Amino acid sequence: MSRSHPDKMTFLEHIEELRSRLVRSALYLAGGFGVCWGFHEQIFHFLTQPLRRAGFTDQFIYTSPAEAFFLYMKMSFFVGIFVAFPLLLWEIWAFISPGLYRHEKLWAIPFIGMGSFFFTTGALFGHFILFPLTFKFLWGFA
Predict the structure, then answer these.
(1) What is the pLDDT of residue 118?
(2) What does the alpha-carbon distance between residue 93 and residue 76 come to, in Å, rounded to a whole number?
(3) Angstrom distance (rounded) from CA 125 to CA 35
């Protein structure tokens, strides 16, 4: 698709660019899901480790025949989002950055870097520290 001016895109060109970025993002999500599905038992063991440390049994109960399958599917999808997040963030940045001035782009770098750092740190804190404490507290009521 040819552009009318090197610095400006028409509305339809913006929509086409957005569509291509969304399609690539969906492919990244599908790829992340596929990778995580290949490791769904290991991921399940990792995610349920705080329950085991809090004293819950290794035996989990399913109330319907398909429940374990759907649990693995949902878990693989959400962990796949986490795995594909750098690529998704890149697609968002690549769509937004052409419309920013240079000084605005420089302000985005620390926000993206620190936001990613704090997101990952918060997820690790929740998994390794907060979840075990919460499960121990709730186990006291069982």
Answers:
(1) 92
(2) 25
(3) 24
